[in-house]
Design a protein that fits this description.
about 350 residues; globular; binds pyridoxal-5'-phosphate; 3-stranded antiparallel beta sheet; about 35% helix; alpha/beta; 7-stranded mixed beta sheet
C-alpha cells in the first residue's frame, strides 16, 4: 500500500476472481463460463467492428438497447447496457444505497456484493441463509435496505419463485430490490415482467454465462425508466464509452442466435442433471441447482482437498474458504465430455 491511498480505502479487500491459469490446459469448470464458443456470426461482427476501433463506441448503445428491448418485451428507456453486469451492480450500489439504510444480501451469495458495498462506503448487512442454504423470505420483508439477491443464487444454485420475489418487492417499496439474474436462463423464472408493476425493481443480466461472451464483458439492467435514468447519470459521470464497439457488435449478433442460445442452455441443464446424478451415486450431497453449476460435498473428502486433487489432475473447480461452505466445491457444467472426465477423475480420487 502506498502512503497515498485514501484513508477510506485502506481496509478494502478486493474481490477474488476465479483462476484463469495460462500455464497449462485445464478442464475449466471454475468460473461458470459457457463451454460453447461464440457462433461464427458473432466473431465476424466483432472483427468487422474492429476495423473502426479508431472511433469511440456509441455511448447510447442504441442498436443493442433496441434489440434487447425487443428480446425482453420492454421499452428502450427500460434498459442500460454495461461492461459486464458487474458494472451495473456497482452502479446500483453507488446510486441506491443511502448510508443510513445501506445494502443487504444473503451471507452466502455473490462475493462481489460486499466488495461493491465497501468500495462505495455503503454499510452492508449479511442475512444468513437457512441451514439448508435456502433463503427465508421473512428475513427480507420490510427490511428498508437496498436488497441484492442473485436468482438463482450463487454458489448454492437455489432459485426463488416469482411469488416470493413479489413479496419482497411489495414490502420494500421505499428501497430498490436488485434481482441479479446472471444464471436465470438455466432454469429460474425471470422477474423482468414485474418491472411495470414495481418501480423499485432492478433486474440485472449478463452475456457472460448463457450467451458465451464472458470475455466480451457485456451486461445490462432492466428497470423503470426513472431507475435507468439514475443509472445512466452514473454511467455518464464515470465512463460513457463503457462498452467497447467490438463487444457491442458481438452482443447484437448474439441476439440473432436466441434459438441456439436456448439450445445450449438445454444442453447444460441436461448435463447438469447427468452430473448431479453421477455424483449422488458417488455419495455426494448436492443442492438443487437451477444454474450452470452444481454445488456438492462429500463425507469422504473435504472441499479444499477435492479442489486441489482435481487441479493436480487437470480439472479446475471452485472452492470457497467461507466456514459455512468450506466442505463444498462449485463445479461449472460443461460439455458431456468434460463432465465425464470430471466424474471419472472424482471417482479415482475417492
Ligand atoms: C458471473 C456473475 C455476475 C457478473 O458477471 P459479468 O461477467 O460481470 O456480467 C453477476 N452476478 C453473479 C451472481 C454472477 O455469478
Amino acid at each position: 500500500m502506498s502512503k497515498f491511498l485514501s484513508e477510506k480505502l485502506r481496509a478494502l479487500t478486493p474481490y477474488t476472481p476465479g483462476e484463469q491459469p495460462q500455464d497449462m490446459k485445464y478442464i475449466k469448470l471454475n468460473t461458470n463460463e459457457s463451454p460453447f464458443a461464440p457462433e461464427r456470426n458473432v466473431v465476424k461482427a466483432a472483427a468487422r467492428a474492429a476495423k473502426r476501433l479508431n472511433l469511440y463506441s456509441d455511448p447510447e448503445c442504441k442498436k443493442l438497447v433496441s434489440r434487447l428491448a425487443e428480446t425482453y418485451g420492454v421499452k428502450n428507456e427500460n434498459i442500460i447496457v454495461t461492461n459486464g453486469s458487474d458494472e451495473v451492480l456497482n452502479f446500483a450500489f453507488m446510486a441506491f444505497c443511502d448510508s443510513e439504510n445501506g445494502a443487504a444480501a444473503p451471507d452466502i451469495s455473490y462475493g462481489f456484493y460486499p466488495v461493491f458495498a465497501a468500495v462505495n462506503g455503503v454499510p452492508f448487512t449479511k442475512i444468513p441463509l437457512k441451514d439448508d442454504f435456502t433463503i427465508d423470505i421473512k428475513d427480507y420483508l420490510g427490511l428498508n435496505k437496498t436488497i441484492f439477491i442473485a436468482n438463482p443464487n450463487a454458489p448454492t444454485g437455489f432459485a426463488l419463485t416469482l411469488d416470493q420475489i413479489e413479496q419482497i418487492l411489495e414490502s420494500n417499496k421505499e428501497t430498490v430490490v436488485v434481482i441479479d439474474e446472471a444464471y436465470v436462463d438455466f432454469g429460474a423464472s425471470s422477474a423482468v415482467k414485474l418491472i411495470e408493476k414495481y418501480d423499485n425493481l432492478l433486474v440485472t443480466m449478463t452475456f457472460s454465462k448463457s450467451r458465451s461472451l464472458a470475455g466480451g464483458r457485456l451486461g445490462f439492467g432492466i428497470a423503470s425508466k426513472e431507475i435507468i435514468r439514475d443509472l445512466n447519470t452514473i454511467r455518464y459521470s464515470t465512463n460513457p464509452y463503457n462498452v467497447n464497439s467490438m463487444t457491442l457488435a458481438a452482443g447484437l449478433a448474439t441476439l440473432k442466435n436466441e434459438k441456439k442460445v436456448r439450445k445450449n442452455c438445454e444442453t447444460i441443464i441436461k448435463n447438469r442433471e447427468y452430473t448431479a446424478n453421477a455424483l449422488r451415486n458417488l455419495g455426494f450431497y448436492l443442492t438443487d441447482s437451477k444454474a450452470n453449476f452444481i454445488f456438492a460435498k462429500s463425507d469422504k473428502i473435504g472441499g479444499e482437498e477435492l479442489y486441489l486433487k482435481l487441479k493436480a489432475r487437470g480439472v479446475l473447480v471452485r472452492h470457497f474458504k467461507l466456514p459455512r461452505i468450506k466442505d463444498f466445491v462449485r463445479i461449472t457444467i460443461g460439455t458431456k465430455k468434460q463432465m465425464d472426465i470430471l466424474i471419472k477423475t472424482v471417482e479415482e480420487i475417492l
